[in-house]
Amino acid sequence: MVWPAGVGGPPHDHGTWGVVSVVEGTVEVSQYELVGGASLRELATVEAGPGAVAHVLPPHEDWHRVRNVSSQHPALTLHTYGKDIVKNRVFDEATGKLGWIERRHTISS
Ligand SMILES: [Fe+2]
């Protein structure tokens, strides 16, 4: 995934195991715990640079967010998951509600 400067996603899960590594740039990764099935509690936030590897593993290590906090440089991350993810849960910080987001993976030649 390419993360343009200053771009990040909302907290979300994947519903399967995953391994993520940073190829270029630096990203901020926050991990969360789902509390009471309706809210998130932040567990930790780290900065990860090239060569850093992290995992997600439901049910307790799945919620996270990735942000490129650089104002100038894009970041590149490599993601491997245990299944084809067509939709996953996302936490809307504006409303404080959990929802679903559909993932569309496109392969172009
Ligand atoms: Fe993710």
Brief descriptors of the model:
109 residues, mainly beta, Jelly Rolls, 4-stranded antiparallel beta sheet, 3-stranded antiparallel beta sheet, binds fe (ii) ion
Helix percentage range: under 10%
CATH superfamily: Jelly Rolls
Strand content: over 45%
Mean pLDDT, nearest integer? 93
Largest sheet: 4 strands, antiparallel
Domain count: the total is 1
List the ligand species. Answer: fe (ii) ion
The CATH class designation is Mainly Beta
What would you say this structure looks like, in words?
There is one protein chain. This protein is mainly β and 109 residues long. It has a single domain (2-102), classed as Jelly Rolls. The chain has strands at 2-3, 18-24, 27-35, 39-48, 53-56, 64-67, 75-81, 87-92, 97-102. The chain has a four-stranded antiparallel β-sheet, with no helix packed on it. The protein has a three-stranded antiparallel β-sheet with strand order 4-3-6, with no helix packed on it. 20% of the residues are buried. Bound molecules: fe (ii) ion. Fe (ii) ion binds at residues 12, 14, 64.
